[in-house]
Each structure stands twice: as structure tokens, then as C-alpha cells.
Amino acid sequence: MFVLHEPQKLQILYESLEKNIPESLKVYGTIFNIRNKNPFKLEVLVDAWPDYQVVITRPQKEEMKDDLDHYTNTYHIFTKAPEKLEEVLACPQIINWEQTFQIQGCQEILDQAVRKVAASKFVQVDYLKTHLFMLETPVKCNTSRDGEMELMEVFKMQNVDEDNKKKDFRSIFLDASYAGLLNEQWEYGRNERSLKYIERCLQNFPAVGILGPDGQPISWLVMEHSCELRMAYTVPKYRRQGKMWQTGEHLIKYLSEKKIPFYVHVADYKEKVQQSVKNFGFKVCPCGWHQWKCTPKKYC
User: Fold this and answer.
1) Is 7 helix (H, G, I), strand (E, B) or coil?
2) Which of 66, 4, 67 is nearest to 31 (CA)?
3) What is the pLDDT of residues 187-238, one digit of tens each?
4) Where are the domains of the chain?
5) Which of 26-40, 149-163, 207-221 is predicted least confidently?
6) Fewer CB atoms inside 10 A, N or C side of the chain?
7) Whole-prediction pTM value?
8) Is pLDDT of 155 > 60?
9) CB of 25 within 8 A of CB of 263?
10) What is the pLDDT of residue 90?
11) Which secondary structure element, helix H or strand E, spans residue 124, and what is its range?
12) Is 162-257 the same fold as 2-136+291-299?
């Protein structure tokens, strides 16, 4: 596999992946952000061009300095040829099996290859499958005449709900100063590495919060580097009052206006959350959302 650098080729790949939504969503969303300033310093690998069969996004090598930082060390994969995956994944120039890392995708067919290669590398695999949701109509990005992305201040942090400033509950875009609060409540966080990851997300991507009467966030929703909406949380005292609905409404309106793709995943056991997401207009995607956390035995 090789790195695809040229903006025009990335545009062609992006448009091609759009035809494979929802299975391509993780890679599709990541490439959107690669073409929008690339704040996480990611790169795109393909097995061939233009007739690719496998696409992988990953951090550039200099970004993966911490062998235990699986938040940074994340690979997103989409394939049209699952029979090629084992050979691709086994290549040390493509996947660094000496580190703790994550593989994320929207294709369950990745599972067999990931597990087989991991076993051969003496790597432990923790697998997570959840429900993937997206709106009925995928949101397309804006492109200029020559195919380049129009930034249009896409991630400009500005207050929303300007007419509601004087009310007790006000919607704002959160900045990195709130990272500690979000990290404390994120079930996959609560450590120093997750704190740094959340800070980067808040610095570079839209995140909406609802401020309570004391001026502190009581509900929030954050976009991450593959355009997925995550870390949704509402303080227990304010649950069942429509605060998450308000949060989602503002963020989704903003993303739709800016033509930024988005989607969410919800765990199996969170049935009430699933229903709320459906009520919002999202549909469940049969392909599901999949994550493989891979940990070398020496770090277990």
C-alpha cells in the first residue's frame, strides 16, 4: 500500500467512498478532516489507484510516539476485498503491532482478519460492536470548481442560540478549557491520554454544550477526527428535560449548514438512547459500528 497525497486524488477517493456509505463512514469522515486542514496529521493509504480495494487512514508516523496511546494510534479501514485484509494488516509498514492501537470501521468482515493477524503477533484483541446511526440523507461537503475543499471557516468556534443568551440554559461551542470536565464523564476516558485526545478534539472540531444557571456545562456532544459525534453526556440532575435534544439540535443544525458529514454510534444496552436518536431522525445502519482495541502481550 502507499500514501495518497495529491488533493485531486483525495477528492476522487472521497467521492468514491460516498457511494459506499454507511460501510465507508469512518474512512469517509476522516478524509473529510484530512482535506480540511488535517488537524490530527493523518494520512490515507490505498492498495492501488484508481482501482483501490482497501483504504486505511492512520496518523503520520511522527504522531504515534506513545506506544500506549490508543486514542491517537487509531486506524480506520474500509475494504471492497476482505480476502486481501489479512495480508495488508500483517505488514508492519502498515500497522504497528508493537503498539497499543485501535482499528475502527463499519464492516464486520474486518473481524476475522484482525483476530487472525493479532494472534500471530501475540496481540490481545478487545472487540466492541455497537449500533451505527446516520440521518436519512448523507451530508455532502462543499467543493470548489477545481475540486479543492472550501474551508469557509468550517470549524470557526462561535456561539449558537444568540437570541437565547439571557436565558438560564444557553448553547455554546465548547473550547479546550472544558476538556477536564468532559474527560471525567467519558466512559472510555478518565486518564491523561484521553484528556489530551479530548483537548485536541475541542481545539479542532465543533462541540456543543448547554450551560446551566451557574455557567457550567450540563450537557454536551463532541465531534471527533472521523466526523463522528461522541462523548454525549447530560448531568443526572438535568436528564429527561430535553437538554441533550437541545444540544443535538444546535450541533446538527450547524453541521448541516456547513456541509460537514456526521453520524453516531450507540451501545446495545442503551435502548433509551437508541430510541431518542431514532426520534431525532437517525436511522440504524445494518452494518454496525466496530472497534478492535489491540494490545501487545507485553502491555497486558
Assistant:
1) helix
2) 4
3) 999 999 999 999 999 999 999 999 999 999 999 999 999 999 999 999 999 9
4) 2-136+291-299, 162-257
5) 149-163
6) C
7) 0.90
8) no
9) yes
10) 98
11) strand 123-135
12) yes
Q: What is the pLDDT of residue 156?
A: 36
What CATH code is assigned to 2-136+291-299? 3.40.630
Q: How confident is the model at residue 136 (pLDDT cuts 50, 70, 90)?
A: confident
- Range of weakest confidence among 92-101, 151-160, 239-248: 151-160
Are the C-beta atoms of 135 and 264 separated by less than 8 Å? Answer: no
Largest CA distance in the chain: 60
C-alpha cell belonging to residue 128: 466492541
Mean pLDDT for the stretch of residues 180-190: 97
pLDDT tens readout for residues 275-296: 999 999 999 999 999 999 999 9
Alpha carbons 169 and 163: distance in angstroms, whole number: 12
Residue whose C-alpha is closest to residue 193's, from 295, 69, 58: 69
Q: Rounded distance, CA 42 to CA 40, Å?
A: 6
- DSSP code of residue 148: -
Residue for cell digits 466526523? 227
Fold (CATH) for 162-257? Aminopeptidase (3.40.630)
Whose grid coordinates read 468532559? 182
Amino acid identity, position 260: I
What is the bridge-based pairing of β-strands 101-105 and 74-79?
parallel
Side-by-side strand order, sheet with 282-296: 2-3, 42-46, 54-59, 74-79, 101-105, 282-296, 123-135, 264-266
The gap from C-alpha 24 to its chain's centroid, in whole angstroms, comes to 12
Q: Would you give the DSSP letter of residue 149?
A: B
